[in-house]
Structures
1.
Amino acid sequence: MQKKIEQAKLLLEALPYIKKYKDEIFVIKYGGSAQINTELKNRFAQDIILLYMVGIKPVIVHGGGKKINELLEKLEIKSEFVDGLRVTTKEVMEVVEMVLSGNINKEIINLLNMHGGTAIGLTGKDGKFMTASAKAGGKYGLVGEIETINNSVIENLLNEKFIPVIAPIASGGELGHPGYNINADLAASKIAGSLKARKIIFMTDIKGVLNKDKELLSTLTKEEIIAYKKNETIHGGMIPKVDACLEAVEAGVSKAHIIDGRIEHSLLLEIFTSEGIGTVIKNN
Ligand SMILES: Nc1ncnc2c1ncn2[C@@H]1O[C@H](COP(=O)(O)OP(=O)(O)OP(=O)(O)O)[C@@H](O)[C@H]1O
Ligand SMILES: [Mg+2]
């Protein structure tokens, strides 16, 4: 009996958060690096369904760096990273689209649907919901910078109780254009800002942002981010992630979190407990 009472108390601990977040949009960036094994993927899907069942509106944006690398390697197509972004030729773009929108997107949808949700997948090309132009004048090839987001596409899906699952590819806006590869972190932050999301959460393969001594930085300010980027404490894939956090909070999202997707139920731990995990960035 005592154990049952403890369980009930545990459930009640989540109550203030459930009240606070009901009907709010949470954008969750599901990093390719956090999509590790079947067990963790199932835990992720359960967590999303729980959020959904208590009235939170999850919008998922996913990455897929590792899988893209694997297929590029198999096909013997070379690609390189500059400033944490994948330089994208037309050939690479085809693979990016195949993996993101064909393989990973459908896998996540299937996972959520099998766990009791009604997830629907889309890229920026669907309903022309996201358009882009070449980033930095084409320095990174077909890496795009988002120009427009048509919110009504996502809002309609949310109103109809769907869980949108977005692959970070944008329409090039003209006939025959292969589309743009958008860094998933930056796509997530743009989408979160434009939907006026309450929170954005990045699930990745590390505890959060670490300092030079590999210690977790549980909070970060804009000034610290600038300094850590400058001295290369923050490098590679963490660069677009912290940029995305800043962009989101500056666009009105109240908090951006970077959490360890390798930990079981990391999403629930972050959202429904007072301690939280990982790194949080707030607008100051
Ligand atoms: N200061 C730092 N603190 C923590 N991680 C850092 C830091 N600087 C660089 N990184 C790197 O950033 C990586 C996370 O970014 P990465 O792009 O690899 O993953 P992701 O964005 O979750 O996945 P994907 O790009 O496939 O969606 C970490 O695994 C780590 O190697
Ligand atoms: Mg990344």
2.
Amino acid sequence: MEFNEGGGNSVMPVLQAENVQKSYRMGELTVSALAGVSLVVQKGEFVAVMGPSGSGKSTLLHLLGGLDGPSEGEITLAGQPLSKLSDNQITIVRRRKVGFIFQFYNLLPTLNAEENVGLPLLIDGQSLAPHRAKIAALLERVGLADRKHHRPDQLSGGQQQRVAIARAFVNDPEIVLADEPTGNLDSKTGTAILALLRRTCDELGATIVMVTHDPRAASYANRVIFLKDGQLARELSNSAPGHNTQAIMDVMAGLE
Ligand SMILES: Nc1ncnc2c1ncn2[C@@H]1O[C@H](COP(=O)(O)OP(=O)(O)OP(=O)(O)O)[C@@H](O)[C@H]1O
Ligand SMILES: [Mg+2]
């Protein structure tokens, strides 16, 4: 693993954050969550975001996905500067270009696996019928071909997260954003989920930004960025995904 200052790629990035700041008003007080973060993510990259609790990781992920707007700075997603778009336009970009994976899966309890995978299409006003084959292929990819009629309460935690991963890819997103996708899973199940994300990135050419506390999880990425106090503190590039956990732990120890 080598130290990497980043930058210097001429291909148009999938995602770009320029001097992004976010502060929250709490009555009289202003809390700064992000204090000027710049980041470029290229197509096919798997980027992990690490940093101590409260360093701004989730805030950054929300801004990158257009779930919330920055106080200052610009996010450009799939070539679209979000500050130039209306809220409705941002919602459409988010539905069509972004896949989300959360720590607690966020599946709808009344829908079965197949319907949960198709949910982003339903929300986008499309019918599932023309997408059945694609949904079946995604369920197969995540190892749940034989579970498509199961509801979330009939699936294990790891299986629910697999459904959530299939769902995140159903709209052929430009980018998938994951916040602690293994945070609620035991380490063996978590490792299987990471291997699945890594494989999906390699086989589908997907682009992933994943927030994690776990250096082993981060080791599956091609690049690890470290936030501290709302700023980018370090960046490591990982030429051997699945390895180099120790180097990531060393950087984390230096930040805390
Ligand atoms: N809606 C909000 N209102 C006020 N302050 C907020 C809000 N959301 C986040 N913050 C503050 O912004 C800072 C960054 O929060 P954030 O959730 O991004 O941290 P994090 O790195 O994801 O932490 P963790 O590892 O614990 O999930 C924290 O100090 C937090 O208290
Ligand atoms: Mg968080």
